[in-house]
Amino acid sequence: MTTIKEINYSTYGRCVEISNGTVELYVTVDIGPRIIRYGFVGGANMMFEDAQRTICEKGEPFDNMFGEGKAWYMYGGHRLWTSPEASPRTYYPDNDPVCYEIIENGARFTPKAQTETGVQMMMEITLCPDSSAVNVYHNIQNIGAWESEFALWALSVMSPGGKEIVPMPDADTGLLANRNIGVWSYTKMDDPRVHWGDKFITLCQDENASIPFKFGINNDDGYAMYFNHSNMFVKKFEPIIGAYYPDNGMSYETYTNNRFIELETLSPLCLLAPGECIEHAESWALFGDVAMPSNDEAEIRAIVAKYV
């Protein structure tokens, strides 16, 4: 049975706990919202936490757009953004209380409307009563006075020390290219954290790394895996093949530095009239006692066949 109750957690204040006795999620409602915890009951948190609010963006552009002294804090966990990324617009200071409504097996979270950027966000989170399966539904409405083009961007900031695996597209496109791989200006192609395999890309989070690393890809298979704490986190979404995605065609992006790693899915770019909405869904699962694999692709394929 899935239970929903309000708790206080760490420095985040009020959170909504969604649990079925096997796994649990904590969702912040004094700020955010963020899915700040996802893990087995009594076990390690798969999400990164910045409980001391050390990661923030602020300064004159934020003062001018949002009001004097306003700052955006990462907080950690899973969040909802818009793409393409732009500062300060993307970094809305979501530091206000969040309204929530309990629904069957979960809750719906509606933060304060972003009048400065013209969007209203919403997340709906449900947990299967008898498994680790989570559905995260995201919705953004254009509440501005004119058309606005953006994509919905769902970012899961994961705890340090793990390893991510992303599948390569494998469609037979004949004489045409079948994959888009985007890299950012600070990305080193020979970075030791990444392994560019034939069927999979693996990326390790390294707390001793000195520079960040980011790539994007048209993730046509619609999943990624993250191994940490002897657990495996699986994140799935439904890419729309051939749709117009941000960053030159990226339906999936990932970023890592010396503190965390992000698993990011995106919707296609959409031109929304005032009042129109864009939506995007993810499904999560958590499996225990799964060893972190090597870069051997036969080993990875066996894990995918068993769990994904």
Task: Outline the fold blueprint.
Layout: E1 3-9, E2 13-19, E3 23-28, E4 35-40, E5 56-57, H1 60-66, E6 72-73, E7 77-83, E8 99-103, E9 106-110, E10 119-127, E11 134-142, E12 148-158, E13 163-167, E14 181-183, E15 194-196, E16 200-204, E17 213-217, E18 223-228, E19 231-237, H2 246-249, E20 252-256, E21 261-266, E22 270-272, E23 277-288, H3 297-307
Tell me the β content: 35-45%
The 3D shape can be described as: globular
Please report the number of helical segments: 3
Radius of gyration: 19 Å
> How far apart are the first and last residues' alpha carbons, in Å?
24 Å
How many structural domains does the protein architecture include?
A: 1
How much helical structure, as a percent, in the residues? Answer: under 10%
The third-level CATH topology is Beta-galactosidase, Chain A, domain 5
Name of the level-1 CATH class: Mainly Beta
Named CATH architecture? Distorted Sandwich
Q: Helix- and strand-based class?
A: mainly beta
